[in-house]
Amino acid sequence: MSEAVFLLDNRSQKLLSADQTLGGSEGNDVRSIGGSCMAGMWGGDWLSWGIAGDLPSDQKFANAVSLCWASEPLVQDLCIMGSPTVECTISVADGTWGIVAARLCDVFPDGQVALVSYGLLNLTHRQGHDMEAVSELTPSQEYQVSIQLKVTGYTVPRGHQLQLCISPSYWPMAWPSRDNVTLSVVTGPCTQSTLRVPVYVPSNTSASSKQHPLTATPRLGPDIPHTVIRPSGGKREVQLGLSSGKHLMSSVTDLGCIYLPENGTKFGEVWSDYYHIEENVPNSAKAICDRTFNIEWPRVGTKAKVVTHSEMWSDQKVFFLNNKLQAFVDDEAFLRTPGKIPSRGILFEICSRYKCLDIPNT
After folding, report:
1. CA distance 42 to 170
2. Which residues on neighbouring strands pair with residue 220, listed in sequence order?
3. At 201, which helix (H) or strand (E)?
4. Among 87, 188, 328, 337, whose Cα sits 20 to 30 Å from the Cα of 125?
């Protein structure tokens, strides 16, 4: 393994190799961008099942509301294996809370942009996640932060460009910060803003092999005997309110229904998720999730079903959670939870908001 280091250059909006000169400027350069809830709508599901719609789509739309730096076309394949890291100097305006979302992308020669990896940092946690380390930001003050991206194994082919994109929001993958801040990234000879990429270097044995470890065909384990009753499928849509500014991203994942003849079990599951938000109003965010799970044993004539409905929203201080669960056996209600949980159970601390938490006694 080795490491490729790139320098962020605001002047050229390029990712420069470590031996190149930044922008030809004696001072630092600053680029700024406001938060847009659309930055994360093209990132796919947090947990993908490989079903249509839940994988990341073309990142061009997300890039339109992000700060981006791209390398020159690569002269050889870049085999990434591990966790890329972004170390940069940032500041915020219009608030004291914020997040940073960093995306590493592969830009194809035809303009298509594929997501390679991403990472998130709650800026109030910039010094660590212990309670004593969490602190708000001072507007316009510069901070050196480190953002670790998700582990990945990906080859950026020769002729493609490596691209880094940064935004102050990543809804619905990350809940919006309570402040709709403007994020600035500083580059130049007087600061340090870099992208570090772990690179796989083939050994002599693997280099002589016909199958490269990062491009070899994935091997699957043996499948168990089953019959498909309903095939899996998915549907993911984004609705943009051009006049109202209210947006909705919906995702319906049907995991299908299968029958296992070995034990006579038939089961299926459907997930439905709806994410509502209004542009420039972070506390308008609301997530609604429905789940339905069916299981049946035809040989003995018994079946069961579990249905859940969950809602989550927030104000500037606390999160609210509403959960409802129903269970049925042979179409008769077996268990029902209340639609609302007592207030002290639904007002709880998450991330950096715990220092502002005020739970009522009712």
Report:
1. 9
2. none
3. none
4. 188
- Residue 189 is given by DSSP the state T
Residue 183: C-alpha distances to residues 87, 91, 165, 324 (Å): 15, 6, 13, 38
- Helix or strand run (H / E) with residue 211: none
| Interatomic CA distance for residues 35 and 40, integer angstroms | 11
* Phi and psi at residue 13, to the nearest 5°: 60, 40
At 349 the pLDDT is: 35
Quick one: three-class SS letters along 34-63?
A: ECCHHHHCCCCCCCCCCCCCCCCCCCHHHH
Instruction: State the amino acid at position 329 in one-letter form.
Output: V
Q: What is the spatial distance between Cα 273 and Cα 253, in angstroms, rounded to a whole number?
A: 9
Would you state the pLDDT for residue 191?
83
| Cα 334 from Cα 337, distance rounded (Å) | 10
Burial classification of residue 269, based on how many CB atoms lie within 10 Å of its CB (0-12 exposed, 13-18 middle, 19 or more buried)? middle
Q: What pLDDT sits at residue 215? A: 65
d(CA 72, CA 157): 12
* Contact present, 277 and 38 (Cβ < 8 Å): no
Q: Are 251 and 40 in contact (CB under 8 A)?
A: no
pLDDT of residue 124: 93
What sign does the dihedral 216-222-227-228 (CA atoms) show? negative
Residue at token pair 């003995």:
300
Question: CB–CB of 277/269 below 8 Å?
Answer: no
Closest CA to 106 of 41, 35, 154: 154
Q: Tell me, what's the pLDDT at 343? A: 36
Q: What is the 8-class DSSP label of residue 109? A: T
- Asked whether 186 and 142 are in contact (CB, 8 A), the reply is yes
Residue 71 has a pLDDT of: 96
Distance, first Cα to last Cα, the chain: 57
Hey, is 288 helix, strand or coil? strand
